[in-house]
Each structure stands twice: as C-alpha cells, then as structure tokens.
Design goal:
With 242 residues, the protein is an alpha+beta fold. It is built from seven helices and eleven strands. Helix 6 runs antiparallel to helix 7. The longest helix is centred in the last third of the chain and has 12 residues. The relative contact order is 0.16.
Length: 242
C-alpha cells in the first residue's frame, strides 16, 4: 500500500528564548512556529509493533512534548502513549516510541545501535526539575478512525495535562527555550538516556574501551556531534572480543 508523505517540509524556526509575562497564556503568546517541530502538519506513517500501519497527518508539539495528529473533523489531537506503537515516519524523519521516554527523533542509525533526541520548548522551571510534574503530563486525544482501527487505546484522559497547564494565564513571568535530551539504544534495541552511567550499563562488556574513548575524546553528553562520535565507536564493538 502506498502511503502519502510530505512532499515538502521545512523545520520550524523554533530556536531562541521566549518570555511570557504575568497574565499571558503561554500557548497563545508563544510563536506558533516555535511550538512545533515542523512548520506544518503533513502525512506520515505510524507503524505498530505487530507490523500494521496507519496514515496520519502529524506534527510534533515541542511545548507539550507529544505527537499530535489532525482527525477527519480537522481537530488537533494528541496521540496517547501506547506501547504498541513502534515508529512514526514523517518524510525522512523517524520517531521511535518508548513507554518511558515517549517519542524520540532519530539523529543517526548505526545499524547495531541508534542515537535519538527528544526536543522540548521548556519552561525554565521545568529544566530544573528532576521528575515530571503537571507540565510534563501527556494529553491523550480521541482517536481518528484510521488510527483506532489498529489502536483502541488512543483515547481521552481526565488528568491535568500539559495542554491545560499551558492554557492558563501565567501567575509569574515564564521563560521558555528549546532544549534537547539525547537517548540511545544498545545492541538489543533497548533505549537509555545519554549519560556516562547508561553507556557503562549498555556496553558493560566493553566498559574499559568505552570509558577510555570517552576520556580520550572528551565526550560531552549534551553534544550531538560528540554522541555521534561515541555511538559510532560503540557500534563497532559488537563483533569485537576483548
């Protein structure tokens, strides 16, 4: 079956710092293009764990940190966290779904392991949190028929959501900036947050070599190019017997 994807797409101009003043509603005053990964919603393909697929007109909401789609009534809804979703492909962009981390966008695939990122338009207070709060909750929208045929659990949720949180007037000044967290897979395709501890755990058989590479190359775990260099090295270790 042929799946119509984007014929043309441009990335939203979402870099920079954005301020919201007392009394303003974040979702209303933040630039629309800054709130989304791509400039427009467009056709993509959802692939489920059982191999079935569905078409959806999608975009990734950077403010809410969730994937959204447009249903047949032209409403914008959010795809619920669903462990049966495997990937969502938008033109040349691939998003993987993990129950712990949500949708992460592929940075580079090394065949034996993968590097991905999760971008968010983050509130300064959110950046300081070590655990999620109301602003990190995920909205679950009612499914479009094309999607509900293969996933009945894309449905409404009553808890306070990030959409509700950022739809209220600010009671104090708020500063937002675009930030990215990085994730990677081990040789068994399990996802980990990109940090030294996770690298040691994921590649523990080669820990000595990996740690030596990290120290020698002065790898920074918040730098995409450094992580590409590191994962490129790690990807070659699968056939290496220390």
């Amino acid at each position: 079956m042929h799946y119509p994807l984007f014929t043309s797409i441009s990335e939203a101009q979402s870099s920079g710092i954005f301020n919201v003043q007392i009394g303003e509603v974040p979702v209303e005053v933040l630039p629309q293009k800054a709130q989304y990964r791509f400039a427009d919603f467009g056709w993509g393909k959802v692939t489920f764990m059982d191999g079935q697929t569905a078409n959806a007109q999608v975009n990734y909401n950077l403010l809410y940190g969730e994937m959204q789609f447009i249903d047949r009534t032209k409403d914008t809804l959010s795809i619920a966290d669903d462990p049966i979703v495997k990937t969502l492909t938008v033109n040349d962009f691939i998003f993987y779904y993990d129950p712990r981390y949500g949708y992460v966008e592929e940075v580079k695939d090394f065949t034996t392991c993968t590097l991905a990122k999760k971008q968010r338009l983050r509130w300064a207070k959110e950046v300081q949190k070590t655990t999620g709060g109301a602003a990190n909750d995920i909205m679950r929208g009612t499914s479009d028929n094309r999607l509900s045929q293969t996933s009945s659990s894309w449905q409404a949720n009553d808890k306070q959501t990030s959409q509700e949180f950022f739809s209220h007037s600010a009671t104090k000044p708020m500063t937002f900036s675009l930030r990215a967290n990085y994730y990677f897979t081990d040789f068994n395709h399990r996802w980990y947050p990109a940090n030294k501890s996770s690298i040691k755990k994921a590649f523990r058989r080669y820990k000595k070599d990996v740690l030596e590479f990290i120290d020698t190359e002065e790898i920074k775990f918040n730098d995409a190019q450094d992580l590409i260099k590191l994962l490129s090295f790690c990807s070659q270790l699968k056939d290496y017997n220390p």
